[in-house]
Amino acid sequence: MIPFAAPVRDFRFVLEELLEHGSLALPGFEEASPDLVEAVLEEAARLANEVWAPLNASGDRQGCRRRDGGGVTLPDGFIEAYRAYAEGGWNGIGVSEALGGQGLPEVVASAVQEMLHGANMALGLCPMLTAGAIEALAHHGSDALKETYLPRLIEGSWTGTMNLTEPQAGSDLSRVRTRAVPCPDEEGDHYRLFGQKIFITWGEHDAAENILHLVLARTPDAPEGNRGISLFLVPKYLEPGSPVGADGSLGERNDVVCASIEHKLGIHGSPTCTLSFGEHDGAIGYLVGEEGRGLNHMFTMMNEARHKVGVQGIGVAERACQHAFAYALDRVQGKARGSEATISEHLDVRRMLLSMRARTDALRALALYCAAQLDVARHAADDAERAAAQARVEVLIPVVKAFSTDQAVEIASLGVQVHGGMGYIEETGAAQLLRDARIAPIYEGTNGIQALDLAGRKLQRDGGAALTSLIDDVEATTQALAANPALAGLARCLAAGVADLRAALVLVLEQGTDPESGPDAVQAYATPFLALVGHVLCAWQMGRAALVASAAVEAGSDDPFYAAKLQSADFAIRQWLPVGRAQRAVIEAGMESLAAFDAAAR
Amino acid sequence: MIPFAAPVRDFRFVLEELLEHGSLALPGFEEASPDLVEAVLEEAARLANEVWAPLNASGDRQGCRRRDGGGVTLPDGFIEAYRAYAEGGWNGIGVSEALGGQGLPEVVASAVQEMLHGANMALGLCPMLTAGAIEALAHHGSDALKETYLPRLIEGSWTGTMNLTEPQAGSDLSRVRTRAVPCPDEEGDHYRLFGQKIFITWGEHDAAENILHLVLARTPDAPEGNRGISLFLVPKYLEPGSPVGADGSLGERNDVVCASIEHKLGIHGSPTCTLSFGEHDGAIGYLVGEEGRGLNHMFTMMNEARHKVGVQGIGVAERACQHAFAYALDRVQGKARGSEATISEHLDVRRMLLSMRARTDALRALALYCAAQLDVARHAADDAERAAAQARVEVLIPVVKAFSTDQAVEIASLGVQVHGGMGYIEETGAAQLLRDARIAPIYEGTNGIQALDLAGRKLQRDGGAALTSLIDDVEATTQALAANPALAGLARCLAAGVADLRAALVLVLEQGTDPESGPDAVQAYATPFLALVGHVLCAWQMGRAALVASAAVEAGSDDPFYAAKLQSADFAIRQWLPVGRAQRAVIEAGMESLAAFDAAAR
């Protein structure tokens, strides 16, 4: 088995040298020092490498089993590994101190998340979902709900889930049918829920004492569509003293049960449940936030969840890199320059390896840049600074989610290819990474939905202002690169990408405001546009990395890390960016064939 | 379950309208009429749709099991489905009448292969390997071997395997260590083989009475490297009257046994075996062709096997299209133009559907064009015509193999994406297609090996002449398109692709002959170059399709097939080709970062 080594060196490079620890200078992070961050990264790496990573393959092989009665048995070791995480206090590292967390910057929390997902994505989903529940409750829950439930979620002794999807309601949540009936004749301020939710990640398990389900449901007489949907908290076990059931007994076990678990392509260690609410008297639930605003409340939280899914993709991509490099450095086939060689010596294999490495580096840098902007948006003293960062975050998040996960699938697939025939054998481990990665472009809003969010919503509402401001920063980087003769080639390539992106932006904005074609038309351009943005922003980050690495080399550093980073940057900008730039031509080609296309015609 | 419907209409379009049944006009195909071809396609579709396709999902779920003693149990129904194929005479359709086959053109045989692989790729591998054994024996076997073994292979009552790979010898077959010892002191002209072969497709099963293993092995005192390797035929069961074993008994069961089968990402219905030769007295084998020329003999046959793997990828891509279209036309989510809509109405989903369809159409047209050139290369009366076609085939085959299979993985992955969350659930069937497709870029020479074969070998040895002649034909198509005002936009896009390809070809040829960088340097350019060639040739075929479809529409046809084909062509040329064209920029960027890259550095 290939051991996992969380890429602490690269995290430190991005946090310290690319982002210059900007988050630590913000109000609220006075306690966090570079030394503390370094210690946190080292400690998280230990948990990831030594506790979580060794269970990744066995968890995939064993998978989860539903027991009679509705319980779910996790793969061996998962309960202990989750508890090691919770007892280490990791669940609260990004949660504010006011709520009982450790209040570390989002950049640091994101780095830790990536390590854990790289070590064991299926297990990493459990705290990822809990983080969503914490967000939802912290932002929208009543004081009573927060007091009762938040501390246990933050310490990780209880976990959370998100219950959105129903068989007829996936990307279109306006179709949710689960009912929530208020119970004025019963003691307490609660509802009873009836309905079925599908695809509930970590919906049932024994790793925590209790599970808190956040559930979208419809109140009686609520209007059709989005505005009739509210958000409810439905605990698996009710608190002592909670409302009693119709039969008079204390309702300790709530009326929610795992009806089945899915047999999936990957993430076998993560139980994906169908939850049945209200097979008897109704599952007791508490309203979170305002009635009728459930979707809004859910979306507050989803923005961050989407960032986390992007980070998850990067974690898996990192592990795919490590597998592929280890194999290529060990496997002897053919000759290079006349003598026996490992396949890492063959230029065509090097292309695959460097492509994997350069892309993973670039995606990581962009995701952490976005996390740093999240820190600014929340913590900067200046209102305008916060607003500007928030505007960037809004544009960046769909890109981080969709682009990172699409690329992660490609990187994991390349990882399989590097292994040749061994890559297709499950025991090797490369195939699992491809299977696991393949969910990330789908859940938490498909990548198509992300593209529509970017091109149809985020760009149109500010006329592209936030993206244009980002592009201006990319252009500044091209100028800095151009000032260094050794990097002038990169400057030219990146500048060409900037020009393409500006031209494409004009077209996409025109589409969105064209009264003839209507607002739907922009949908046709959304996916190629997001891909172009992703390529240019990743190339930008690698351009910045090249500046830093080049300066280090010029200053006399002989750390091979910098030489490798320069190669990554060169590849990302010269050989990867051109593929993204092609999306301008795709956008300019017009979309007549899509508009005319009748899928039923043939 | 989504039923499979072999795309007979599109095969007829390509064979009749794009290729104008050119193969039927060749000497040797006098018996084959368009009516006969049509009947063959319809009958093959029935076998594919009704017998093979229904076993695809169950075969994946059940997989193969190795029994104690070395036997392998296939999934339920596979034996019967294979026998229906063999008894229908399908195994011999592409084999010459002189050898007992039906002597139909390769274009027709390829169409039938695609249908069967689309229906059930795991099962399709069995006859695919047998076809390789037939080729090897027909070209290189002695008359005695041919007489004894060919008829049973052609009728399909016996099957064949290819035994190349050993743990230390994959892409680099010079490392083969299996030994073949001549036995002059025993009766008959045979060898005894000792060694282990891995990744042997359909290496053991009960669907046929006997299995003929074609095995690469080294004779005693043979030189190191490629020239020491010979090819042997090792039957699972010896013929009555064959040499007796050392213990004096009749060696009816040969000394070759299935030691294990692999647990793979996909094609679970295809047993991938480790075969152990000579655990006792040695497996009796017969030399095929000349001693020391085993690799050459194997490669004769491999060219065709590579074409078949490309076709296999297209079959799986076709099935992925059918799954995705069926789901998208059924699944209601969101609104389009103000009212409830199936997701096929959303432009972003249409992009995925049309991208899948356009690419599959294009790949099919190119693969069948290549098959038609194979027919010309073998059957044309004129020597020069045969030689020119053979030269094209040599260039086209690595493209058909690598480009079709890389694209098939992407198409199958898009198919998963169209299904949203359901795509990740194994029962849906979309994920299986991705898992199955993923082997095709690996086996029968990895796609990296194909790219090296094209850029490093095929192009360099004729200075790009055969490819240039193909590009000239593409250019002729751009002129035909330009003559039709409705298609002039396609003409411009295709012409731009031609210009890129010509420029890239110059660069790649320079690399191959540059004494400074040495012959290895071209490896760095091989994969992007193959991708560029694939995109341009596929766009070419769709340009030709657009000409035909446009003429049909102008002539008053209201067959929706032609309108759909025009949309496919428009998408392929305007929206898919630009992504391929980007490879010119990749190639022009130079490969310094690859040359400098040290995979061990970080």
TrEMBL record, chains A, B:
Q: Which cofactor does it need?
A: FAD
Which stretches make up the Acyl-CoA oxidase/dehydrogenase middle domain? 162-277
Name the source's superkingdom.
Answer: Bacteria
Domain Acyl-CoA dehydrogenase/oxidase N-terminal, residue spans: 39-156
Q: Which GO terms describe its molecular function?
A: flavin adenine dinucleotide binding; oxidoreductase activity, acting on the CH-CH group of donors
Q: Which UniProt keywords apply?
A: FAD, Flavoprotein, Oxidoreductase
Recorded family membership: Belongs to the acyl-CoA dehydrogenase family.
Protein's name according to its UniProt entry: 3-methylmercaptopropionyl-CoA dehydrogenase
Q: From which source organism is this entry? A: Halomonas heilongjiangensis
Q: What is the lineage of its organism?
A: Bacteria, Pseudomonadati, Pseudomonadota, Gammaproteobacteria, Oceanospirillales
